[in-house]
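Problem 12. The chain below contains 339 residues. Write out its predicted structure in token notation.
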Amino acid sequence: MSSVKELVESNSLKSVPSNYVCIKNPEDSIFYETENIPTINFSQLTSSNPNERSKAIQQLGEACRDWGFFLLINHSVSETLMEKVLRACQSFFDLTEKEKREYLGRELFDPIRYGTSFNVTVDKTLLWRDYLKCHVHPHFNAPSKPPGFSETLEEYITKDRELVEELLKGISLSLGLEENYIHKKMNADLGSQLLVINCYPPCPKPELVMGLPAHTDHGLLTLLMQNELEGLQIQHSGKWIPVHPLPNSFLVNTGDHLEILTNGKYKSLVHRAVANTKGTRISVGTAHGPPLDHVVEPLPELVRDDNPPSYQAIKYRDYMKLQQNHELNGKSCLDRIRI
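Solution.
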């Protein structure tokens, strides 16, 4: 299976190959630019001023409840490091196909997995996307090429995990729980952190293809950063909204396991990635979840007689397998474990 980058850089590409052309619903092309996407100020969320912090926690809870998404600004990851990571990721995809294929993964839980599309064994239509996936916690894994790549990623994912720990504190407090409740309940010190680096090469007819179709993420929270090219679209109130990130910000979305934990109070976000004609879009996402063998179910504190459990208990590893073995399609994976 050729990578999309290899396909684009071959001199033969004049049109989109038929196996990449996806059938879209007419409503999928309707966009709304007017929505004010929530913005969370990280410095206020971690402020020593109780009033300032309380307000930020309330805003965080509202963003998780009403959107499942927010932009995170004034965080503790330097712009220099973010730019360094994006350059390093571009350098990985600029390796020769032979070098990248050293990291071809066969299995879902292989420590490092380079590939294309989503799961070529189940995808009816191939996606306009190449990827590198690394399980980076509790054990750090990354390619040894290009030089310095692994070290840059390790520095970044450590900072990334610190951000998520603070966000989970705020989310716990927004639910009326003790601030370390979710962290402890999910055994987050040994939790799973999956780094997913996406490469979306330019496409001659981007309206015919899809980078990633509408889907939700597994895990509690996903932190995403990207280069200067936009392509993320989120679904809110049944409408597709293109995301225009603020400089030096993270895009944060809630995952299926936060929806399971909160028994549906906080919903996971349906989102997708589209292609463009301008250049290669690089996005760097980290999905944060419990340890792979941890069983996740609605928190007892959020279940009552008039609000019984809405989801079956499931091992995190099994949920990831469930998602990987089916085509991405909205909330179809979460729907499989609804009660």
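Discussion. The longest strand covers residues 192-200. Students who got a different answer should revisit the alignment rule from Section 12.3.
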